[in-house]
Design a protein that fits this description.
single chain; about 160 residues; 5-stranded mixed beta sheet; 5 helices; 5 strands
Length: about 160
């Protein structure tokens, strides 16, 4: 099985390894450690949008994304290059692990930028795909998803 792990904390280290490390990185690493113990042959791709944020969508991006692939010019293809790579990664994965801190009652801006980049007309869709799942490891005590901080929830996509 192919897993895609997305870390989105602005903090680089893990809270179990350094004083000011990230709780959500600890959660995603712990989940993957236990997963790999049971399924050592599964492939994990890491995408760290916290430390390497995707570019936010722009007017040029929207114009390119809503132009038919065969009608895009070189500049449009270049504009969509990063988005294409992120979509390829997403499509290749069967389980997505998203480690998401709560920042000001929402997700971190780089994680939202990732979502904006992977929701693409003609490439991805929001309809359920049988057999695909997601794990959300979140940290935060207030906001839309209130509850105990530092937990993991599973979803079917
Ligand atoms: C800029 C910023 C905004 C935050 N906003 C919220 C918030 O609205 N609600 C909340 O419960 N926690 C909030 N927190 C606390 C974080 O969710 C918490 O520190 C979490 O552990 C961060 O994830 P990390 O440890 O993986 O970096 C905020 C933290 C930061 C740095």
């Amino acid at each position: 099985m192919n897993l895609l792990c997305i870390d989105s904390s602005a903090r680089a280290g893990r809270s179990d390894q350094q004083a000011h490390g990230s709780h959500t990185r600890r959660l995603s690493a712990g989940f993957l450690h236990r997963w790999k113990a049971r399924r050592p042959h599964d492939r994990v791709v890491h995408r760290d949008v916290g430390l390497h944020p995707p570019a936010p969508v722009t007017g040029d991006w929207v114009r390119a994304a809503f132009t038919r692939p065969e009608q895009r010019d070189q500049r449009m293809r270049e504009t969509l290059r990063e988005s294409d790579a992120l979509v390829d990664e997403l499509i290749a994965s069967e389980l997505i692990v998203i480690a998401a801190p709560m920042y000001n009652f929402g997700m971190p801006a780089p994680l939202k930028a990732w979502i904006d980049n992977v929701v693409r007309v003609g490439r991805t869709s929001l309809r359920p795909r049988p057999g695909r799942g997601a794990v959300l490891a979140d940290a935060g005590r207030t906001g839309p998803a209130t509850g105990p901080a530092g937990r993991a929830r599973r979803f079917r996509l």
